[in-house]
Every structure is written in structure tokens, then in C-alpha cells.
Design goal:
Pfam families: GDP_Man_Dehyd (PF16363). This protein is an alpha/beta fold. The protein has 10 helices and 13 strands. The protein binds nicotinamide-adenine-dinucleotide.
Length: about 350
């Protein structure tokens, strides 16, 4: 029996054993009926959504995840399956949804370039029709609504750092337009519902976020660099490497999303970490952090790749009392450990 077969047999035995043992869940705060909210998280099986679900569940709320599993996965939320406060609906948000909720965190949308470019029409539909459907639901049940918008809305910015007053510099017909313009339209739709239907809306403009549960093949810079470094493969930089990015750890983002949802501020708010790195410096840093022998190689730049990215978080500080807390060192440690485990699992055939 080779190692793969042995592991498979062990996994089957563990599954059988687990079926006989009552499942245990992470601890959940007891909440009275006045404080306990029914919360919908669209895209809750994805990277950010699943961390948000953890937080809301542990806070004692009832959480319903709506996801079509395009980039999300059941394993991201398996810790809650079977819990009395948790429900999951396999549903594509380009179709209307009818349920009763108090708050909606609308996160459903592919987020990484290879995913959103795979089917640009579907990306536009998800961001436009999907957002209309989620807002229609918010209107019907009078729920407060938060949308995960993006720093991509600023395009290739001429203003640095980017504050929320900046209207952006987006190529409306380029390969990234399906996402950038989809999110811009989604924001416009939100504020149309505010003006016309009096919906309570919150808009989070999220900057690059990283952490465990990132998709292993999502082609984003953090996951690419870490995987290449772990595997001692060439670390690929597209373009000169002088372009800058800022990276926030996912738990900081979740704190910001919850503070925004439950606060009184209704204009867009940047949520990101203002520590700025050139991509070249970031590649070197990850290489050293992992202790990798990977060479760093440069390839032709990507179309419409922004030259600089750094959030101005004055608004989040002033109105939400929020700023990122997790150091790059701590965040990377957790993320590298996660990717090491994922790579090992995929090599043993236990995960694809
Ligand atoms: N991660 C980041 O760095 C980042 C940065 C800016 C904005 N955002 C935004 O945050 C949100 C979550 O991003 P993420 O990184 O967790 O991405 P992700 O791909 O891991 O999660 C997105 C989730 O939405 C689901 N989904 C996609 N289309 C759907 C549809 N039509 N119907 C139902 N479900 C659908 C996917 O299956 C997945 O579970 C997205 O809206 C994204 O635009 C993320």
C-alpha cells in the first residue's frame, strides 16, 4: 500500500469515527433574543466571507450563508455545519432570494483576476444583478446592507494614497473592467437604493487582503509568492516590480467590516493596511521569510496593472475607530503555515 492509499484509508476511518461522535463546535457567545441578529452573508464560503462567518457565529448570531461555490468551498465553513445557528443555501445571487434577515453582508463576487476574467459577463451579472437582488431583499425585509467594494475602483490612481473622495482612474473597456466597473456600478446601485428606497447601506472599499483560506490557485500576489517560495520555484514578478501594494491581514478586515456594519457612517470607507511595499521588496521579504532558495524573475507587466496602491484610512480611524492591528510578520506566519499544509494535502491527494 503506498502512502496515498494509506492516507485515504485513514481518512475514511476518521470519517466513520466522526459520524459516531457528536460534532463539537467552536464556542459561541449566548445572546438574548433582543441582541441576536439573523445575518445573511453572500459569498460566505469564500476566503473573507468564511472568516466573517466565524466572527458572527462566535458572537452568537444566526448566520445564513448564500453561495454558489464558484470560488468558495464547503471546507471553509465546515466547522459550523450542523450548528443550530447556522444555515447554508446553495444559490446563485443573479437570481432573487426570499428569506428573513436583519443584516446582509454582500460579499459574493469572484475577487482574483484569473477568476473574474474567466467569465467577464458572469462577473458583471454577479456584481450588477446580484447586487440588485441583494438590495431588493434588504428593501423587502428592511435589513441593513453592507457591500464589499474594492480598491480596484480607484483603477490606476493618480492620487496617492487613495482617499474615498477620489473618483478613480479605471479603463472601462480593459480586461479588468468587468470587475472594476462591476463594483463601481454596484456602489452606484447601492446609493440609488439609499436615495429612492431609504435603505441603510454601508460600503467597504477593501484593499489587498491575505490570510488562511485564500484559494491556492487564485493567482493573487500573496498566494503566488508564498507558494512559489515554499516550492523553491521561481518567484514571478509581472512588470518592473516597482509597483506598490499594501496588504492587510484578514482578521483586521473582519473587525473593520463588523464595525462599519454596526456604526452610523454611510459613505464609502477604505479598509486596508497603509504599510506600502514595492512588489520587488515584497517578493524578497517572502523569500527570506520562508527561507526559500527561489530565484526572483521578472515577466512582462499585466495590462492595466495599477502602479501604486495605498489606502488613506483617516475615515475608518475617525468614524469607526478602526485601524489594522496585525503585523506583517504575524500575518505571514499564519498564512505560510496554512499554505504549507494545503500544499502537503494536495500532494497526498487529500485535497485538490
Ligand atoms: N480578498 C481581497 O483582497 C479583496 C479585496 C477587495 C475586495 N474584495 C471583495 O471581498 C469579497 C470577497 O472576496 P474573497 O477574497 O473572499 O473572494 P472569494 O472568491 O474567496 O469569495 C467570493 C465568494 O463569492 C461566491 N460567489 C461568486 N459569485 C457568486 C454568485 N453569483 N452567487 C453566489 N455566490 C457567488 C464564491 O463562490 C465565493 O465563495 C468580494 O466581493 C471581493 O470583491 C476582496
Amino acid at each position: 500500500m503506498d502512502i496515498k492509499e494509506k492516507l485515504q484509508e485513514m481518512e475514511e476511518r476518521i470519517i466513520k469515527l466522526e459520524m459516531n461522535v457528536p460534532k463539537t463546535f467552536p464556542p459561541v457567545k449566548p445572546l438574548g433574543y433582543k441582541d441576536k441578529k439573523r445575518i445573511l452573508v453572500s459569498g460566505g464560503a469564500g476566503f473573507v466571507g468564511s472568516h466573517l462567518v466565524d466572527r458572527l457565529m462566535m458572537d452568537g448570531h444566526s448566520v445564513t450563508v448564500v453561495d454558489n461555490f464558484f470560488t468558495g468551498s464547503r471546507k471553509n465553513i465546515e466547522q459550523w455545519i450542523g450548528h443550530e445557528n447556522f444555515e447554508i443555501i446553495n444559490h446563485d445571487i443573479i437570481n432573487p432570494l426570499f428569506i428573513e434577515v436583519d443584516q446582509i453582508y454582500h460579499l459574493a463576487s469572484p475577487a482574483s483576476p484569473p477568476h473574474y476574467m474567466l467569465n467577464p459577463i458572469k462577473t458583471l451579472k454577479t456584481n450588477i444583478l446580484g447586487t440588485i437582488n441583494m438590495l431588493g431583499l434588504a428593501k423587502r425585509v428592511k435589513a441593513r446592507f453592507l457591500i464589499s467594494s474594492t480598491s480596484e475602483l480607484y483603477g490606476d490612481p493618480e492620487i496617492h494614497p487613495q482617499s474615498e473622495d477620489y473618483w478613480g482612474n479605471v479603463n472601462p473597456i480593459g480586461p479588468r473592467a468587468c470587475y472594476d466597473e462591476g463594483k463601481r456600478a454596484a456602489e452606484a446601485i447601492c446609493y440609488a437604493y439609499v436615495r429612492k428606497e431609504n435603505i441603510e447601506v454601508r460600503v467597504a472599499r477593501i484593499f489587498n487582503t491575505y490570510g488562511p483560506r485564500m484559494h491556492i490557485n487564485d493567482g493573487r500576489v500573496v498566494s503566488n509568492f508564498i507558494i512559489q517560495a515554499i516550492e523553491n520555484l521561481p518567484i514571478t514578478i509581472y512588470g518592473s516590480g516597482k509597483q506598490t501594494r499594501s496588504f492587510q491581514y484578514v482578521s483586521d478586515l473582519v473587525e473593520g467590516l463588523v464595525a462599519l456594519m454596526n456604526g452610523n457612517y454611510s459613505l464609502p470607507v477604505n479598509l486596508g493596511n497603509p504599510d506600502e511595499y514595492t512588489i520587488e521588496k515584497f517578493a524578497t521579504l517572502i523569500k527570506e521569510f520562508v527561507g526559500s532558495s527561489s530565484p526572483i524573475v521578472f515577466k512582462e507587466g499585466l495590462e492595466d496593472d495599477p502602479k501604486q496602491r495605498k489606502p488613506d484610512i483617516t475615515r475608518a480611524k475617525n468614524y469607526l475607530n478602526w485601524s489594522p492591528k496585525v503585523s506583517l510578520q504575524d500575518g505571514l506566519q499564519k498564512t505560510v503555515n496554512y499554505f504549507k499544509k494545503e500544499i502537503q494535502m494536495s500532494k497526498t491527494g487529500l485535497r485538490s
